[in-house]
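Continuing the series of single-chain predictions for the mutant panel. This is the parent chain; the variants come on the following pages.
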Amino acid sequence: MINKKSLLTILLFACMITTAVAQNSKPFVVPELKEWKGDQGTFTIKEQTRIVCQEENSELTRIAHLFALDYQTMFGKRLEVSHGKAMNGDILFRICKDRKMPHEGYSITIGKQIIITAPEAIGIYWATRSLLQMSEQDDKQSLPCGQIKDYPDYAVRGFMLDCGRKFIPLEFLQDYVRIMSYYKMNTFQIHLNDNAFPRFYNWDLMKTYSAFRLESETYPGLTAQDGSYSKQEFIDLQKLAEAHFVDIIPEIDVPAHSLAFTQYKPEIGSKEYGMDHLDLFNPETYRFVDGLFKEYLEGDEPVFRGKRVHVGTDEYSNKDKEVVEKFRYFTDHCIRYVESFGKQACIWGALTHAKGDTPVKSENVVMNAWYNGYADPKEMIEQGYQLISIPDGLLYIVPAARYYYDYLNTQKLYENWTPVHIGKAVFEEKHPSVLGGMFAVWNDHAGNGISTKDIHNRVFPAMQTLAVKMWTGKNTGMPYSKFNNLRKCLSEAPGVNQSGRIGKTPGLVYRQASINPNRTYPHREVGNTYQVSFDLDGRPENRGTELFRSPSAVFYLSDPISGLIGYARDGYLNTFHYSVKNEKIQVKVEGDSISTRLYINNKLIETKDITRKYFNAGKDSINYVRTLVFPLEKSGDFKSSITNFKVYQK
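Parent structure:
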């Protein structure tokens, strides 16, 4: 017989077990969720699940259809979009005014229904990104029941990409809009012009590589010939970004980094400070720059659609007071000119470097705070600038270079950095003058073999990490080691796979008994650490014969120049010292983030790894990169027989 004391103990123990079971643990999302209250059970999104917009709202309906499309892309289920009353098993979208919730914030209640509420449509959209990330971590797309409240600490969560020194194809920019959006990063600065370092061009500035990437009708011939964007392409890119709640900040960098303009129009180049500097004492310089900005800012439907436009203004000479004052005058002129078209002007921090008496407008001006020696953050805040934190010593990537970072130190950033850490200057969290943060890729070493895939390999882990730090601030919820493992389980974005990942488990990920000429196959490419192997019954091939191609690369059985096995991507051709003959061989190609290797009958023929290119009698050098994300999408018109084709991925 059980006495009362024992019964009470049993009931209390049972209650403790029930309580423990009821509390679902916090789901993993990047950026990490601010608030989570766990409940018991799960909600599984099924074919019959509807996305219900409570009110007739065109923006809410658009987001619902976008979510349905993304869900179908990722999981193969097409969810119906409806209006009115939600039933059990549905996902409800509802705009609900809440003065305590920041405008990008949202709430999700997961129970018999999923109820998403937000004060504005953008919050509903961010909530769908969280649901997609949670869904992709469960094979059945089951979500833990509970309540979420989520909102960012910082309004600007950004990434800057140098398209001037290396042309970045439009498709890559489009994918990066989607990637940024998937991780709630909302600001994409596109650096449209720049020039390489003259020391790699015999110190001849007029022969140094430079480029301006946007179509120009005002100045015919200014646009780079080796890669550019038409006005319509750039407009469409911005429209895509707007649809995904990403702001694009176009940047035309003047008056330094301006060699593309002075090579086009030498009379506006500075004879004293170098032709990569505009001559600020020449009235024609102002007419040229005004004409360039006007082309993209004027009219009811301007090419630069967003609210912000960046005018550069960094790293100009401060040799004497006269040039400093003229630089300050030019900076103020550009700010006010952009503002005359209804845009908010953005500039690089340079006004400590160019300290002077000429006033430069600060009210409603955004400054990229990149190096405190050029612009002291405390001083700039006192002058009235709004800062985007982008400290070069922490957040600059220069691929394959020996200065700044090749890969960001994501552990250090995750554990120690937030946007109020600008160099050695540290402000209180969520300081009203610090809008947020940004990290950057600078393609300083033009012609160094770096591909867009190499850039992505460097950027994506940084993107995931900094998405947390710009949204969540210092309140990260787990050790870095755990975060770093979990983040790798997430995809890049719906329909985006720049890494060339096949499946979720390592090992043999794809095989074909034979590869036939002129066919399309199911996978676009394979990247990261991979091995591609096949048996080849060889026939002499015409030069230019392809084994496979994708939009990003070509693998040749006989390259167009020398008839060797090789590959091309981003305008670079690399060949191995082996040509296909009348013979039966086994071929293996291995690749990773450093090198590409060819084996014939298990014998290493050659490794294409990072090598050095020397200049100026060996005084200067750059790393030259020869990686390959292996193309798999379309087979070429070859004569040889390809069988036993296998792809392994680690």
